From TrEMBL:
SUPFAM superfamilies: Acyl-CoA dehydrogenase C-terminal domain-like, Acyl-CoA dehydrogenase NM domain-like. GO terms for molecular function: acyl-CoA dehydrogenase activity; flavin adenine dinucleotide binding. It comes from the Bacteria. This is Alkylation response protein AidB-like acyl-CoA dehydrogenase. Residues 6-120 form the Acyl-CoA dehydrogenase/oxidase N-terminal domain. Pfam families: Acyl-CoA_dh_1, Acyl-CoA_dh_M, Acyl-CoA_dh_N. It comes from Sinobacterium caligoides. Residues 131-216 form the Acyl-CoA oxidase/dehydrogenase middle domain. Its cofactor is FAD. Keywords: FAD, Flavoprotein, Oxidoreductase. Residues 231-371 form the Acyl-CoA dehydrogenase/oxidase C-terminal domain. Belongs to the acyl-CoA dehydrogenase family.
Length: 379
């Protein structure tokens, strides 16, 4: 168990902080939103991040990666949360590359992971079919034919799905929606015949897509892992995503509190600084304590992935539930303490509030993860 970064990880975090502050401040997200950027993230920035080795950080050395681990990636996630940076790091490296690494054949790994590592290939996980997280509720079918599979169905809220080169599609090859058994993973070219992608912009100015699959023919070689047995693999992929997202939310909440404390120290009301009021000090102290507890949970969860611990799934749910609560608390309090200007578009506090609302729903809200944590712990 590690609750602090080691020297190398601290150096990486310092480098990521300097990089994001210089190249991707929050105004960069505002610019992407206002200009309705077609990709939804800065492709040049992603190229720079790839040159720094961040796309290869968790990929094994055998496939041109650094094998630096999720604690290292978590350091970058936390700093990206401070500046609300949009990039394919989550969809491509954490979700897509994990699917290939965990379930892919040796040929698939040799062919695709080096492309991810150098930033040439972007991926997206096509899982959800409703507006609420329900990993077992997959209805999209993959019917086995003589030469492969035929996919039919619809996916919603596919993060970066409008721009990804390939999709990791969760499909049902047997059973019924709601059952964990009978799921399979397919790696599909996003421009395949029969695929129709409709871009949607979320309230946090990030991108997702609704994707229709109509008689999409894929070869048997597109299958990741075994047919019908994708559930344990999908669980691992989602847990990596939940923990990464918790780290990013930690950075966002930390930044939000810092900006609020700074504002309270500058703003005067009735001739005195707002920060001099004892009631506001108490509220800030509560947020600080909650953040420090959350930091410990996130660090332990990142360690659980690297150490391949048996309690990784429980730690993922604990981290996601905890950060859902803390990010909500901090953004609510920050908006209120900024008064009327807290809800204006000119102030960046609103960007954190919106990001919190979206991140809280991705891969499970607090209720989902409290229930899952209790079940995993035998309650």
């Amino acid at each position: 168990m590690s609750l602090v970064f080691n020297e190398e990880q601290r150096q990486l975090q310092d480098a990521a902080k300097a990089f994001f502050n210089e190249n991707a401040p929050i105004d960069a997200l505002r610019k992407l939103r206002d200009e309705k950027d077609a990709t939804g993230y800065d492709t040049q920035l992603w190229a720079q991040m790839s040159e720094l080795g961040w796309a290869m950080i968790t990929i094994p050395e055998a496939y041109d990666g650094l094998d630096f681990g999720y604690l290292g990636l978590g350091a970058i996630a936390i700093e990206s949360g401070h500046t609300l940076t949009a990039s394919p790091l989550f969809g491509t490296v954490v979700l897509g590359a994990s699917a290939i690494e965990i379930a892919g054949s040796e040929q698939q790994k040799q062919e695709l992971l080096p492309q991810v590592a150098c930033g040439e290939l972007t991926l997206a996980l096509a899982l959800e079919e409703t507006n609420h997280h329900n990993p077992a509720g997959v209805s999209l079918t993959a019917a086995k034919g003589a030469d492969g599979y035929v996919l039919n169905g619809r996916k919603k809220l596919v993060l970066d799905g409008h721009s990804a080169d390939k999709l990791v599609v969760v499909a049902r090859t047997s059973g019924n929606a709601g059952e964990a058994g009978g799921l399979s993973l397919f790696l599909v070219d996003a421009d395949s015949a029969g695929i129709s992608r409709q871009r949607t912009t979320l309230i946090d100015s990030r991108n997702a897509a609704n994707i229709d699959f109509e008689n999409v023919v894929v070869s048997a070689a597109a299958l990741l892992g075994e047919a019908d047995n994708a559930w344990p693999i999908l669980d691992q992929i989602l847990d990596r995503g939940r923990i990464y997202l918790a780290a990013e939310m930690l950075g966002g909440a930390d930044e939000c509190l810092s900006r609020t404390v700074e504002y309270l120290g500058d703003r005067e009301q009735f001739g005195v600084k707002l920060g001099s009021f004892q009631a506001l000090k108490h509220r800030c102290a509560e947020m600080y304590c909650e953040l420090e507890l959350a930091r410990s949970v996130v660090m332990d969860a990142l360690s659980a992935i690297d150490d391949q611990r048996a309690d990784s799934a429980a730690m993922a749910s604990l981290a996601k539930a905890r950060l859902n609560d803390v990010f909500k608390l901090v953004t609510n309090e920050a908006t209120q303490m900024h008064g009327g200007i807290g809800v204006t578009d000119e102030l960046v506090i609103g960007f954190f509030l919106k990001r919190a609302r979206v991140a809280m729903q991705i891969f499970g809200d607090a209720g989902f993860h409290r229930d899952r944590y209790a079940t995993l712990c035998g309650y």
